[in-house]
Amino acid sequence: MSVAAASSMTDGRTASRRPPAGQSVPLVARGVGKRFGGVIALEEVDLEVRAGAVVGLVGPNGSGKTTLLRLLLGRLAPQQGRVRLGSRLEVLYFDQLR
Residue 20 pLDDT > 70, yes or no? Predict the structure, then answer.
């Protein structure tokens, strides 16, 4: 099963694909994919997280949420695509088992 990244919403309007001039995008993922054996965990995921954004992932068990987070944090390497993190990024992550 694959995960599709939802676009952010502002006042009920879908945000544009490009940030306004001067607004940084500290996290960008393009075409990210990951397989475990023959099982597709993620396929062609595109995601932009702008400065100051609060992000939550919601989905059923086994849909790839934890895999996506691990790829974004560099704990797993994507088998396709790329992830770019800004240089002054502070990431807080609490594992669900703690």
Answer: no
Residues 6+ apart with CB under 8 A from 43: 2, 33
Cβ atoms 58, 64 nearer than 8 A: no
- Give the residue with greater pLDDT, 95 vs 46: 46
Tokens of 76: 């797993």
**Three-state DSSP state, 65:** helix
Locate 29 and state its tokens.
């993922």
Tokens in use for 50?
Answer: 């702008």
| Structure token digits, residue 59 | 């989905």
Q: In the predicted model, what is the mean pLDDT of residues 52-80?
A: 90
User: Whats the size of the chain, residue-wise?
Assistant: 98
The enclosing H or E element of 71 equals: helix 65-73
51, two tokens: 């400065």
**Strand (E) or helix (H) holding 85:** strand 80-85
